[in-house]
Write a structure and sequence with these properties.
five-stranded parallel beta sheet, globular, alpha/beta, four-stranded mixed beta sheet
Length: 517
Amino acid sequence: MFRPRRAVALVACLAVSLFALTPVRAAAAAAKDVVQEPGREIPVLYDVDVVVIGGGLSGFGAAVGAARTGAKTLVVERTGYLGGWLRGSGLGNVLAIKGWRPSIEEGVLADVAKKLVALKAEGYPDLETVKKDGQFLVTNHEMMPQAFQEIVEESGAKILYFSTYADSIVKDGKIEAILVQTPVGRAAIRGKVFIDCTGLATVAAESGAPTKKAEAFMGLASWIGGVDVPKYTEWLKTRPKEGSPELKKWLEDKIQHKLTYFSSTGGGPDMMNYPWDDWWERNSGAYGEAFKAAVEKGELPLYYKVGEKGIVSIIEGIKPIQFELFGGVARPRTYVVGVDPTDIKAVSEAHAKSAQLLFQYTAFLNKNVPGFEKAAIIRLADATIPRAGRSIESNLFDDAKENINPPADKPAKHDDVIAILQRGEKRGAYEVPYGAMVADKIDNLLAVGKSADGGIKFRTHMLAVIMGQGAGTAAAVAVKDNVKPRDVDIRKVQAELRKAGIPLPEKKEQAAAAKTP
């Protein structure tokens, strides 16, 4: 049973933690502009087995996995809802993808489907209809967080809303407690195992675990309501597939580069610094000439700059859809390249310019695209979120050698598999290894999803849920057996996950605990 505690002194630990040069403080120190925070007593709100930091998709899975495996569990969330990307931060609208794995019938995803049917969400009459569709279309963004919250509470885990991770108290390579900032002051949370579900490996970085950075591929999502989708669809049929050679020349002059290609995994010297090839493919034929005219008139920019390298534009197109509840909705979002997601000043600027561009883009659609005459922005996401950016660096995982899209006849196997990722029926299965989530130098820390080693490889929304469930299950087993997460018996973890409805392959021999090579 949870017993919140008050007025427990952490002064000695705080003196170490608050003045240590974590990445944020190191940057300030390098700039020689710092203030010293005095040591003080911090009340301990919870003392639990497993602390999950971040209540997004991976945090939801982690909390349920840990609690159902018998651990006293707390999930800490900075907003007032669970679900992250599927609600406020990304306005996502699909949970699971037909033909992909993890499927809607695996692990806690199956519980979500059952709960949403019970809540009479999205017009699905029964669970069999959901299974037949192979996915769950989300049009009301308030339903999914409610389902997540009910499932977490039913599992026995506790939720601490409106609490932002601030720091870690680390001693002898182990997190003793984390500090969170609430609207009513600072608080501490003790735990035995901590799970970083922040999406940017923030807990890992601030605790001293090795991390690495990569391009973040950020974006701000929007919903534009009042769209006459049938009218737009008929108009689109009359448009050419791509723009004219003259339009292409204009675009190349604007970007000062030949229209070649952009790759998120890198490329040669002829690669562009932004995916203008996507803009050309998705937009040039439909409204490229009108867009050119609007740019030349100063009605909207082709892109905004952020710092020296940052670029903010809209390349993915309009993406209209007809919803029963909201009617015709378009879902454009910005695409941001060249912005460091750990530089909060640059992120703030990218967010402001993303919002400005989306409103300018909507005005352009009003004027130039049939079906959008009365359209207006009805929702902006809560944040400009990264698809990647920063992750742990684990000595149990070799990111450079991992191919998450193997051929269909050559699946990628790992002895410590905790989830299966398969991006379509024509691709092979990739066995997601537990080792990718094990942090170095901090003995009681796991990192999930984009925070895991591999970063963007593990950003898929349904995989984040099941990876979270795997991490939570492993954390609970580690607590029960009184071992470090690195030394957990992976066969016990795999057995628990199979019991939870995740179809993992049987491994013949007993695996050794995952220890430092």
